[in-house]
């Protein structure tokens, strides 16, 4: 299946913090050694919601039952579809990290000091009100 340039991204919140992944430090990948929300490209035969659920399972071993659409950000001839899920204690403890260097939870005020991948930075700056609402 051929992937598109478009992607689905999940904003995972837990105890008033947001989960970000530190991408691998490899020159052949997009945004090496930068923090980002989990997610990935949509394959031709799936919806953006299905892609988001699949990528979350692949990257974090999380099976999400309910995710909510937040916003679509368009830039550089691609679209990034952002979804949200609030993690329960059980889900947070069940994470098995499979992609990148590590994951961490951050408070809203900590995000400005991070080196962020472009789509994550755009979401945080252009839709700060959404993120603030999710973390309250």
What does the largest sheet look like?
Answer: 7 strands, mixed
Would you identify the regions where 5 or more consecutive residues have pLDDT less than 50? none
Write out the CATH superfamily name: Nucleoside Triphosphate Pyrophosphohydrolase
Task: Return the CATH architecture.
Answer: Alpha-Beta Complex
Number of strands: 7
Gyration radius, to the nearest Å? Answer: 14 Å
Specify the CATH class: Alpha Beta
CATH fold description: Nucleoside Triphosphate Pyrophosphohydrolase
Strand content is 25-35%
Count structural domains.
1
Q: Structural class, please?
A: alpha+beta
Share of residues in helices? 25-40%
The arrangement of helices and strands along the chain is EEEEHEEHEHH
> What is the mean predicted local confidence, pLDDT?
92
Globally, the shape reads globular
Can you count the helices?
Answer: 4
Give the terminus-to-terminus CA distance: 39 Å
Summarize the structure in words:
The protein is built from 4 helices and 7 strands, in the order ββββαββαβαα. The longest helix is centred in the middle third of the chain and has 13 residues, at 48-60. It is 26% helix and 35% strand. A hairpin with a 2-residue loop joins β5 and β6. The chain is globular and about 35 Å long. It is α+β, with helices and mostly antiparallel strands and 136 residues long. The protein has helices spanning 48-60, 89-93, 118-126, 128-135; strands at residues 3-14, 17-22, 35-36, 39-43, 68-75, 78-86, 102-106. Strands 1, 2, 3, 4, 5, 6 and 7 form a 7-stranded mixed sheet that branches. The chain has one domain: Nucleoside Triphosphate Pyrophosphohydrolase.
